[in-house]
């Protein structure tokens, strides 16, 4: 079966209806949306701008990575961090949503047979679809980092979706004590590709995997978004190879493309 990986579809605006909204721990939600029209399949790391239909405060949709993308159904996992995500979290089944996507490039299908996924908290979202899309073709290991106590419902949910996921926590209460970068660096080497998603400080550190002979290190960046389709420049970053728009040139970049020298924007 064609997984759709590495073949991003073009973004379009669609109406959707909230199927369910479930709490995954204190501040996180897993939602499913039924679309009025089928969307192109999205590659892991592609995202949608999501907002309540017909509500203009806040004005802009919030970028969320699709965790499951199938024909007329999308799923998302998000943390409530501010006004936009609070509004989304308050909606009940049947609520109408506006979704623009799939936006961005997404992670291309891995070249090798061994893939390491490294996520900081909600950075796991784009990888949930990847694990099922890759199936048995690729040997996938997933590493997740969380602060610790209080994150049990979230890590249990992730363990259910990705059996065998390696947990790391700052306080040592969940899995290994420490950060996911150090854990992942014990696993990298020639023949391995690494994908990272999470806080930028974590992504920066993942470049050390290249020093350990890793074939390819790809990272998914986060920036505030306006249009999501390359027109407003609000997501621009300065890289060693010039200005890039995270929404269309990314959000997935080769680590060297953005961290070849300090990232400024
Ligand atoms: C490509 C992409 C995919 C994403 N996928 C997910 C996902 O699957 N799940 C998830 O929980 N979050 C994801 N995010 C982050 C999510 O978009 C932000 O948390 C959200 O837009 C915050 O909106 P808000 O109105 O709730 O918060 P605001 O009130 O706008 O801001 C609250 C806080 O969040 C920070 N913030 C706002 N927007 C962003 C942003 N785009 N990136 C980083 N920090 C931000 C602000 O600086 C502020 O500190 C993604 C971001 C991008 C760019
Ligand atoms: S969000 Fe408008 S150019 Fe990227």
Can you characterise this structure?
The chain has 265 residues and is α/β, with parallel strands linked by helices. 18% of the residues lie in helices and 35% in strands. It has 2 domains: 12-103, Elongation Factor Tu (Ef-tu), domain 3 (Beta Barrel), CATH 2.40.30.10; 114-220, Rossmann fold, CATH 3.40.50.80. The protein contains 7 helices and 15 strands. The strands form 3 sheets. The chain has a 7-stranded mixed β-sheet with strand order 10-9-8-7-11-12-15. It has a 6-stranded antiparallel β-barrel with strand order 1-2-5-4-3-6. It has a two-stranded antiparallel ribbon with strand order 13-14. A hairpin with a 2-residue loop joins β13 and β14 (242-245). The chain is globular, with a radius of gyration of 18 Å. It starts with 11 loop residues before the first strand and ends in a 6-residue tail after the last helix. The structure holds flavin-adenine dinucleotide and FE2/S2 (inorganic) cluster. FE2/S2 (inorganic) cluster binds next to loops.
Structure characteristics:
binds FE2/S2 (inorganic) cluster, disordered N terminus, 265 residues, seven-stranded mixed sheet, 2 domains, Elongation Factor Tu (Ef-tu), domain 3, binds flavin-adenine dinucleotide, Rossmann fold
């Amino acid at each position: 079966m064609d997984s759709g990986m590495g073949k991003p579809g073009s973004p379009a605006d669609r109406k959707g209806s909230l199927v369910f909204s479930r709490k995954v721990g204190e501040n996180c939600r897993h939602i499913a949306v039924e679309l009025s029209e089928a969307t192109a399949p999205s590659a892991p790391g592609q995202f949608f701008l999501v907002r309540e239909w017909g509500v203009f405060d806040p004005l802009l949709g919030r970028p969320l990575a699709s965790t499951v993308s199938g024909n007329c159904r999308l799923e998302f996992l998000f943390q409530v961090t501010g006004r936009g995500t609070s509004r989304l979290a308050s909606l009940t089944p049947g609520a109408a949503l506006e979704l623009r996507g799939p936006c961005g490039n997404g992670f291309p299908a891995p070249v090798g047979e061994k893939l390491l996924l490294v996520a900081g908290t909600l950075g796991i979202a784009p990888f949930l679809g990847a694990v099922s899309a890759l199936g048995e073709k690729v040997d996938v290991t997933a590493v997740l980092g969380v602060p610790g106590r209080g994150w049990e419902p979230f890590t249990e949910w992730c363990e259910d979706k990705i059996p065998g996921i390696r947990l790391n926590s700052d306080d040592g209460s969940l899995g290994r004590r420490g950060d996911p970068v150090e854990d992942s660096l014990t696993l990298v080497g020639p023949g391995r590709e690494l994908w990272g998603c999470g806080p930028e400080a974590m992504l920066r550190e993942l470049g050390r995997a290249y020093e350990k002979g890793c074939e390819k290190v790809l990272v998914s960046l986060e920036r505030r978004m306006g249009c999501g389709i390359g027109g407003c420049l609000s997501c621009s970053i300065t890289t060693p190879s010039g200005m890039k728009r995270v929404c269309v040139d990314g959000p997935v970049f080769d680590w060297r493309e953005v961290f070849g020298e300090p990232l400024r924007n």
